[in-house]
Amino acid sequence: MDKGAFLANIAARLGREPGSAPAPRDAIGAPAFWADRKTTQEERTATFCARFQALAGEIVQCADEDAVRECLDRALRDLAPGSAGAWGRQAPWPVDVEDVLERWSVRRFGESDVLDIEVGITGASFGVADTGTLVVETGGAAGRTVHQIPLVHLVILRESQIVQSLGDALAQLRGAARDARMPAYVHFISGPSRSSDIENDQTIGVHGPARVICLLLRDRTADVTKTAGDLA
Amino acid sequence: MSAQSSVRHRANIALRDDFLRGAVHFTTDRLRNRKQAVTEDFGNWEAWRDRGEAIRRHTIEHLDFYLAQFADNLERLGAHVHFCANANEALAVVTDIVRDKAARRVVKSKSMVTEEVHLNHHLEQLGVQVIETDLGEYIVQLAHETPSHIIIPAIHKTREQIKALFEQDGGQNLTTETRDLVAFARRRLREMYLTADIGITGCNFGIAETGSIALFTNEGNADLVANLPKTHIVFMGMERVLPTLADLEVFAHLLPKSATGQNTITYLSMITGPRRPGDKDGAEEMHVIILDNGRSRQLGDPDFQAVLHCIRCGACLNVCPVYRQIGGHAYGSVYPGPIGAVLSPLLEGGEAYQDLPYASSLCGACYEACPVKIPLHDMLVKERQRFVAKTGGKTGEKAAFAAYRVTFADHRRYLRAIRIARRLQGAFARDGVIQAKIGPLAGWTGARDFPALGDVTFREWWIARKRGTKRG
Ligand code: SF4
């Protein structure tokens, strides 16, 4: 059916002038009691860690950038995967881990095939405290398959990237969308892949990763109080 | 085994099948209890419901505007948007894409709208292999059945049955351990994603201001379906839009909390058009099929427009005393439970499913559970009234409605009436189902049965439950 006719039918049913803009509304997004909460970075980080771990996500706390590299190195040694893959060099890495990736001959997205990797290494754009969620924006060298294919997802996140609410993260994505920079694919990840489709028996790693390990860089410099309003 | 005989058969045995009944009770109890816990912990649940309702109401009241904005944004991003008035138009669009791509294999993630248009059957007739990748849907597909719950499709299958199905699909040395079964499904379905020509997903919400498709999943299959094959087709009901990304936050809380009692969904995927120049993975071509199929008829109808507010969470199923007794298949419609009893006759129009609104005890538990406050119980009554008005109504029915008006004004009278109804129906009900004749949907199935009132009403059950849990 033609788009114009389809929409005209809807407008006619609603008794509306087709395509006329709605009057401004007050109820947009989360209620004020939620959107206007003031929290400190310390509180946001604590909530994020508790929520993410409650969802069977794993967190490794790293005091500085060297610690992030050491932890990644140790993780690759312990996991000893048959094959590992990571975002390409041009991707927005929160911490420079090139040395480690080179030492372990990790396959780089865009240069070699990652469709059979067992461990995938990426950065993230945000952590969301309310839901224990990692937000991974993809595009270019930050391939989407890098974290969807493997059994283990290693994610690097800076503490200063942790926001309070989904609304806070969405507000920043929306800012990007205004300049037409919103990526084609953004993934909100809250722990490992799960299903209870077999006799209600909770199980992990059905299609996505069975382990999600977040290497968290504690880079908090000061207690910044932020709200969605400040971020928009 | 034909679909017709299996559905009829199942409706008849639903109440004799101990496992099914146990599984439905156990699962719905569990989902409901978890929902209660998570919403209490979250707090201000009524304020969130109010906000959810306000956003859905505003969106549907201005649907032409938001749908146009959504489609314009998608087209600007290079996606193809198809507006389809009915199932046949949607299937014709799919046929064209399949022919154009010379597609042999299609992978799918869960989508009720594709069930509504009987997409799988259509694809098979085109000679295309269709693989459902949601674990529960995959199990149901291997068994040649249809989903029995909109959130947990294989609620009625035992692990022994699942093991047998996987063995038929090539599984070797399997045990009945969940881990083993899941590992087989993961391996098997990986081959499918990597060799499929087209991936088909549903759409939980379309964001008008950005043209984004928001998908909620726990398994991660929708991401592989959307990203690995070269072509991605999205199926969505035309009501599934939200104005802004900010609005998505509200539903990212309401949906998983209501559906499964999870504080958050494991994966929320936001797909905004096909892959961009410079992207090295993701579908190259994206088609979005926006389906009316009876929905626009509800617009402007003061009694039923709000049915389009539904976010398909399934919470109304989990609290419904009728659904809990008989499970999803006995409804015979694509959408089961209270929402199915309201929606199926509305979407289909005509005579089909006119008996479904009677498959309810009108206890109102569905309204209480609904995260966007759809007055399902009122709608069921209004559907009955319209049906009676249209057919003239038999004398007995008229009397029943007169009595009904009196009865429902007072809850003690209601309780008495329910008890009487339960005794009266004994003459007609056998094995817990009232044999009734309902019109078929597009040749999918023939006659099926209607649930009798349960032995225990929701109210009775609720009171007993409260007493039982008053230990401290
Ligand atoms: S009617 Fe309400 S409770 Fe039922 S599925 Fe729709 S949104 Fe959920």
Strand-helix topology:
The complex is a heterodimer of chains A (232) and B (472).
Chain A (H helix, E strand, L loop, with lengths): L2 H12 L17 H4 L5 H14 L3 E5 L2 H15 L4 E3 L11 H6 L3 E2 L10 E5 L2 E3 L4 E5 L7 H4 L3 E7 L3 E2 L2 H13 L6 E5 L4 E2 L7 E2 L6 E7 L10 H4 L1
Parallel strand pairs in A: 1-12, 2-3, 2-4, 4-7, 5-8, 7-12
Antiparallel strand pairs in A: 5-6, 6-9, 10-11
Chain B lengths: L2 H11 L4 H25 L2 H17 L1 H14 L3 E5 L2 H15 L3 E4 L3 H5 L2 H7 L3 E4 L2 H8 L16 H10 L9 H18 L2 E4 L3 E3 L4 E6 L3 H7 L3 E7 L3 E2 L2 H16 L6 E5 L13 E7 L23 H5 L1 H6 L10 H12 L16 H5 L6 H16 L3 H13 L3 H14 L4 E2 L2 E2 L15 E2 L6 H11 L4
Parallel strand pairs in B: 1-10, 2-3, 2-4, 4-7, 5-8, 7-10
Antiparallel strand pairs in B: 5-6, 6-9, 11-12, 12-13
Helix pairs in contact in B: 2-12, 3-12, 9-10, 15-17
The complex binds iron/sulfur cluster (SF4).
The site of iron/sulfur cluster (SF4) has 14 residues of chain B, from helix 13.
What would you note in describing this structure?
The complex is a heterodimer of chains A (232) and B (472). Chain A has 232 residues and is α/β, with parallel strands linked by helices. Chain A has one domain (38-221): NagB/RpiA/CoA transferase-like (Rossmann fold), CATH 3.40.50. Chain A has helices at residues 3-14, 32-35, 41-54, 65-79, 98-103, 145-148, 166-178, 228-231, and strands at 58-62, 84-86, 107-108, 119-123, 126-128, 133-137, 152-158, 162-163, 185-189, 194-195, 203-204, 211-217. In chain A, strands 1-12-7-4-2-3 form a six-stranded parallel beta sheet, sandwiched between helices. Chain A has a four-stranded mixed beta sheet with strand order 8-5-6-9. In chain A, strand 10 and strand 11 (203-204) form a beta hairpin. Mean pLDDT of chain A is 91; it is low at 222-232. Chain B is an alpha/beta fold and 472 residues long. Chain B has helices at 3-13, 18-42, 45-61, 63-76, 87-101, 112-116, 119-125, 135-142, 159-168, 178-195, 221-227, 245-260, 315-319, 321-326, 337-348, 365-369, 376-391, 395-407, 411-424, 458-468; strands at residues 80-84, 105-108, 129-132, 198-201, 205-207, 212-217, 231-237, 241-242, 267-271, 285-291, 429-430, 433-434, 450-451. In chain B, helix 15 (337-348) runs parallel beside helix 17. The longest helix of chain B has 25 residues, at 18-42. Chain B is globular. Mean pLDDT of chain B is 80; it is low at 1-11, 394-453 and 468-472. Chains A and B meet through helix 1, helix 7, strand 9 and strand 10 of A and helix 2, helix 3, helix 4, strand 1 and helix 8 of B. The complex binds iron/sulfur cluster.
